[in-house]
Amino acid sequence: MNLTELAAQLGKALQRHGAQVCTAESCTGGGIAEAITRIAGSSAWFEAGYITYSNAQKTRQLGVPAELFEQVGAVSIEVVQAMARGAQQNSGARFAVAVSGVAGPGGGSEEKPVGTVWIAWADDVQVHAERYLFAGDRHAVREQTIAAALQGLIALAVGEKLVRG
């Protein structure tokens, strides 16, 4: 399923609940929000998108504690969970997704190689995060991240538990 189809499916699920979504993006640079806003009428269910590429903006715009970057790094479960909750709090949206990763071609390490991405999904009850290792070049890593983010939002919006099989 392509990104536009995923975004349309997300919109239908959110409209059934009368709910809105927000995004907090680092490595995708706004790609999730862009996919969502391809859908006519998305203003009814898309509340806000935050592109927080630098750590300073993750702290300034989303309230991510600055000390987390020293302790665990930007590409971590703690940071994406804080990004998701910060985006929700700032926007008032019921659902949120946050992403932070190493899209490449540089910037990877032995611990966090290129393709490592953390994604967090949040609703008013839970924040669930998953670590992915996507293959391919920068474009491929970003596209796979956007798809996974949208798929997780759809699952959350239709009431599925967010546990990868």
Elements, N to C (H/E): HEHEHHHEEEH
Q: What is the percentage of strand-forming residues?
A: 15-25%
Fraction of helical residues = 40-55%
Structural class: alpha/beta
Largest sheet data: 5 strands, mixed
Dominant shape: globular
* Order of strands across the main sheet: 2-1-3-4-5
What is the tally of beta strands?
A: 5
Q: Characterize the quaternary organization of these chains.
A: single chain
Number of helices: 6
Briefly summarize what is shown:
Helix content is 42%, strand content 19%. The chain is an alpha/beta fold and 165 residues long.
Short descriptors:
alpha/beta, 5-stranded mixed sheet, single chain
Structural features, described:
This protein is α/β, with parallel strands linked by helices and about 160 residues long. The chain has six helices and five strands; from the N terminus they run αβαβαααβββα. Strand 4 and strand 5 form a beta hairpin. It starts with a helix and ends in an 8-residue tail after the last helix.
Explain the layout of strands and helices.
Blueprint: H1 3-17, E1 21-25, H2 31-37, E2 46-51, H3 55-62, H4 67-71, H5 77-91, E3 95-101, E4 116-122, E5 127-133, H6 138-157
Parallel strand pairs: 1-2, 1-3
Antiparallel strand pairs: 3-4, 4-5
Helix pairs in contact: 1-6
